[in-house]
Write a structure and sequence with these properties.
4 domains; eleven-stranded mixed beta sheet; DHBP synthase; globular; 29 strands; seven-stranded mixed beta sheet; 23 helices
Length: 762
């Protein structure tokens, strides 16, 4: 006989792990007990040696679908002789080191029950079990038990309690367990927030959607604004009321077959769509997708996702309705609404009705957005379904907080080898966004019991995150923006460096006071040197040049062509008078509100202004996104790209000079070359230039590893071209997978740099 204490860490709470252990122990006729604790699950197992060893062998092999084991520690104990195996009360003492599971889409078994007229949960919009349902968004604290969730106020009926207590039931210790008798309920409210007297809120909601109405629907991580995706007038009305002009809207589609009627879907994309995380996936639209053109104007892609909450299946179960626009319920760039009263107040004048429920959402969580990049998943936005699962750090970190950047805000709370990235917080450009930042941080610090000893921030003193960080009492560490991007990629692949880092981005404050974003760095986790850069061009009007790409085109062409920029055809293309152009040139010459930038993203804006005539943008990166879109839609180019010239400056830094590219592009404009061809030649030229710079760095340093970072690597065409050229040259290319290569992954890179610096100091 033998007895062992087993401590299991990882995602082992809220996923049916204790019931799993109970069933395995009873199958093998073993004795003992199991409980949740702040460190995970603690198990004591006793019986014949052969049976105990069989239990320990099988334990990691047959775990529930949502569980993830990080470590299993086993120690010997004295045998007790007590018969039977039981689940005991959770232990809330000690240091929290377990992980909260992310919210998971409705599983197949629950869906079958919900659609079965003979089941007691027929059409129940909150059906769940240990394999699916809300987790992070309803959790107050660890251990993950019902009293620590927003389900605490719902007392289970006798039938639900019986399921909860039965070790052989799928709902054994399923904390959100509920039914029509005892659980949350849906209510339909009118535009003023008054309850509607309808027996079936979902049916009434479908009638409103069929009439072209906008309905705010409360889901797992917040409210969505919902309209019929085939109704152009309704989609246009939604855009107008939400103040979201131009930026594509996400579409929820009934099932994978329906998606395939609208978009080209690869096996990797299908796997993302049907995963338990259910992200929005960017897919290439088919020419006759049947949806309103206003959903994604000017681009060849659709952001599509499948139902993940029971209410979604009920809404899309109507034969007449196979696709719904489902966009975050907020004014553009504000946090998503989660509370009922908040939704009625903030969405007044936007929503015609509200389909809401009485289960409290404790944490906002927008939908995650992903694509397939070079055969692997890539995050454009990491949020619901993935948060708060940690990303591993390659070194031990003291308790620290990395606050990220200003746009696409995400903070990272780190301790040991765990980096807990927050959900997507949006752009920190409003009081409500800063409040969301503080609210999410307080929640993370409470559930993971991390008290940061250090705060890590960007160099840019104008970022709201930097301003906030500078007001904190802890030790501060500043990390250069693009070093953080490369360090994030390095940390994900456990590389300490040195590596060749290609940091292609929109905007980031450089060490010389200029705006960087087109850099080749030789980097370690703790430091970097700048090996190459895109040649500086002026940003006339500073931030105005981000919103008005013609300004960036003028800055680049002035640097490349000199007086040639005042050619009448060029000025007509930029839609600027010669008088205004001369004024801009004087501004640039005198350094007035015209910072210098090496940004690759801003160069894409300039190219879009010339090739597409895109003089203003409605959302960030719109010009670059549309430029990539016309390349994918247009005729194939001849394989040759617009060339950039590589030259050394006095400091020995390799300069990528785009002057030849602009000259060739202007000539193609005069010849009337198709937009798709010009865009393709532009992409090819940029990829060739950065591949040449990386190869030159390899020849000088002997470094083979290349890490890619920055928002430009959301561009699938450029990324594919560049990766192929680097691999053909024999280099090892690393592209982020577990975090976003853009600013959504910035704080993870900041945390990695800070951990490395602190390790060197102490």
């Amino acid at each position: 006989m033998m007895r062992r204490r087993v401590k299991i860490a990882g995602v082992v709470q809220g996923v049916g792990f204790r019931p799993y252990l109970y069933c395995l122990a009873t199958e093998l006729r073993l004795n003992g007990e199991v409980a949740n604790g702040t460190g995970g699950v603690v198990l004591e197992i006793e019986g014949e040696r052969q049976r105990v060893e069989e239990f320990l062998r099988r334990l990691p092999l047959e775990i529930p679908p949502l569980a993830q084991i990080e470590s299993v520690d086993v120690e010997s104990m004295e045998t007790s002789g007590v018969a039977g195996f039981r689940i005991t009360a959770s232990d809330a003492s000690g240091h929290v080191s377990t992980q909260i599971p992310a919210d998971a889409a409705t599983c197949g078994e629950c869906l079958r029950e919900m659609l079965d007229p003979g089941n007691r949960r027929y059409r129940y919009p909150f059906i769940n079990c240990t394999h699916c349902g809300p987790r992070f968004t309803i959790t107050r604290s660890i251990p993950y038990d019902r009293p620590q969730t927003s389900m605490a106020r719902f007392k289970m009926c006798a039938a639900c309690q019986t399921e909860y207590d039965d070790p052989h039931d799928r709902r054994f210790h399923a904390q959100p367990n509920a039914c029509w008798e005892c659980g949350p309920r849906l209510t339909l409210l009118d535009a003023e927030g008054a309850a509607s007297d309808v027996k079936e809120p979902v049916v009434a909601t479908l009638e409103l959607l069929a009439e072209g109405k906008i309905v705010a629907v409360k889901g797992i991580g917040g409210f969505h604004l919902v309209v019929d995706a085939t109704n152009s007038e309704a989609v246009a009305r939604l855009r107008g009321r939400k103040h979201r002009f131009g930026k594509p809207l996400a579409v929820m589609v009934r099932d994978l077959d329906a998606v395939r009627q609208m978009c080209a879907v690869s096996a990797a994309e299908a796997a993302l769509l049907t995963s338990t995380e259910r992200p929005i996936v960017l897919l290439r639209a088919l020419g006759s997708h049947g949806l309103a053109a206003e959903i994604a104007p000017g681009v060849p892609w659709l952001g599509v996702f499948l139902p993940y909450a029971p209410v979604h299946y009920l809404l899309l179960g109507n034969a007449e309705l196979s696709a719904l626009v489902m966009t975050s319920a907020n004014l553009s760039e504000e946090p998503i609404a989660i509370a009922n009263d908040e939704a009625v107040e903030r969405l007044h004048g936007i929503a015609d009705a509200f389909l809401m429920h009485d289960r409290e959402i404790l944490q906002r969580a927008d939908d995650s957005v992903m694509c397939v990049m070079e055969g692997a998943p890539q995050f454009l936005r990491r949020s619901r379904g993935h948060v708060p699962l940690p990303v591993r750090l390659p070194m031990e970190a003291p308790p620290l907080l990395a606050v990220g950047g200003h746009l696409k805000s995400v903070f990272t709370l780190a301790r040991g080898h765990h980096a807990y990235q927050s959900q997507h917080l949006g752009d920190l450009e409003s009081v409500s966004s800063l409040d969301f930042f503080a609210e999410a941080l307080e929640h993370f610090e409470r559930i993971f019991q991390v008290v940061p000893e250090c705060v890590v921030h960007d160099l840019h003193l104008g970022y709201a995150s930097t301003v906030w960080a500078m007001q904190q009492p802890q030790v501060k560490i500043a990390v250069q923006h693009h070093h953080a991007h490369i360090a994030g990629c390095m940390a994900e692949y456990a590389l300490s460096g040195p590596v060749i880092g290609l940091a292609l981005d929109g905007t980031g404050y450089g060490a010389d006071g200029c705006v960087w974003g087109g850099e080749v760095l030789i980097a370690t986790l703790s430091g970097y040197e700048r090996y190459a850069q895109l040649k500086y061009a002026a940003m006339p009007g500073s931030e105005a040049a981000v919103r008005q790409p013609w300004r960036m085109a003028f800055g680049h062409l002035l640097a490349a062509l000199g007086e040639g920029v005042f050619d009448a055809e060029i000025l007509a293309r930029l839609k600027v008078s010669e008088q205004d152009a001369r004024l801009l040139a004087r501004m640039i010459d005198r350094g007035m509100n015209s910072p210098l930038t090496s940004s690759c993203g801003r160069m894409f804006d300039a190219a879009a202004a010339l090739i597409l005539g895109r003089d203003r943008v409605d959302y960030e990166a719109q010009a670059a996104i549309e430029l990539e879109g016309v390349a994918e839609m247009g005729e194939a180019a001849d394989g040759a790209g617009y060339g950039l010239r590589l030259e050394r400056n006095e400091g020995g830094v390799l300069i990528l000079n785009p002057a030849p590219m602009w000259e060739a592009l202007i000539e193609d404009l005069r010849l009337g070359v198709a937009r798709g061809v010009m865009s393709t030649r532009f992409h090819v030229g940029v990829a060739d230039a950065y591949a040449q710079a990386a190869i030159a760095a390899r020849e000088q340093t002997g470094i083979e590893d290349v890490c890619l970072g920055g928002g430009v690597f959301h561009n699938r065409l450029l990324t594919g071209l560049l990766c192929r050229r680097l691999r053909e040259a024999g280099m090892v290319v690393h592209l982020p997978v577990r975090v976003s290569p853009g600013d959504g992954g910035l704080s993870y890179g900041q945390a990695a740099v800070a951990a490395a610096l602190l390790a060197e100091r102490f």
